[in-house]
Write a structure and sequence with these properties.
The complex is a heterodimer of chains A (about 110) and B (about 110). With about 110 residues, chain A is mostly beta strands. Chain A has strands spanning about 5, 10-15, 20-25, 30-40, 40-50, 55, 65, 75-80, 85-95, 105, 110. Chain A contains no helices and 11 strands. The relative contact order of chain A is 0.32. Chain B is an all-beta fold and about 110 residues long. Classes of the chains: A mainly beta (about 110), B mainly beta (about 110). At the A-B interface, strand 4 and strand 5 of A face strand 4, strand 5, strand 9 and strand 10 of B.
């Protein structure tokens, strides 16, 4: 089906482990974004990408790594998970600059024990 | 960078009443202001947006107003219905217009 998907939807891991969250979109949108949502903080941008092989930091990039080898995929890796990274993670995509609608995935709920 | 403040954090209304959510922003260069609605267990979805060249925009029961001088914008929902219950986020563009900065969200509860 067309759209934006995230996997897994739920993940429990332990501190120090590496975790990769996947994001896939079928619209060939050039822009993709990763946000985390925490109570009291709203949506905070972690990383974004303007095109394949072009990525840039957002507001809270520390502890995260991204890559974009293909336009449709934008994985987010926590290289050594910490409890403070327990959150709900949303991927989004848009056709262009910030004045284009962002389409959000369903989210991944990550718990770091 | 851009800073977006959103109030109130929670809002309870009776069905049929109006609801107003207010946001302020800091970057005078911002020129795009969307509103997103997030239902429980789902990702946010765009419901309305406004650009800096207009002061008001309406779409059925929802409207957004923008005051560029005061750097604030508001979401107005009239004749609220229980299905309007959700978290609403305002946002403003920044950083060469590539990204959005979101407010912290408003949980709207519409009671039948």
């Amino acid at each position: 089906d067309a759209g934006i998907t995230q996997s897994p939807r739920y993940k429990i891991t332990e501190t120090g482990r590496q975790v990769t969250l996947m994001c896939h979109q079928t619209w060939s949108h050039s822009y993709m974004f990763w946000y985390r949502q925490d109570l009291g903080h709203g949506l905070r941008l972690i990383y974004y990408s303007a095109a394949a092989d072009i990525t840039d930091k957002g507001e809270v990039p520390d502890g995260y790594v991204v890559s974009r080898s293909k336009t449709e995929n934008f994985p987010l890796t926590l290289e050594s998970a910490t409890r403070s990274q327990t959150s709900v993670y949303f991927c989004a995509s848009s056709a262009g600059l910030a004045d284009n609608e962002q389409f959000f995935g369903p989210g991944t709920r990550l718990t770091v024990l | 960078g851009e800073n977006v403040e959103q109030h109130p954090s929670t809002l309870s209304v009776q069905e049929g009443d109006s609801a107003v959510i207010k946001c302020t922003y800091s970057d005078s260069a911002s020129n795009y202001f969307p509103w997103y609605k997030q239902e429980l267990g789902k990702g946010p979805q765009l419901i309305i947006d406004i650009r800096s060249n207009v002061g008001e925009k309406k779409d059925q029961r929802i409207a957004v107003t923008l005051n560029k001088t005061a750097k604030h914008f508001s979401l107005h929902i009239t004749e609220t219905q229980p299905e309007d219950s959700a978290v609403y986020f305002c946002a403003a563009n920044e950083k060469g217009y590539s990204t959005l900065t979101f407010g912290k969200g408003t949980m709207l509860l519409v009671s039948p």
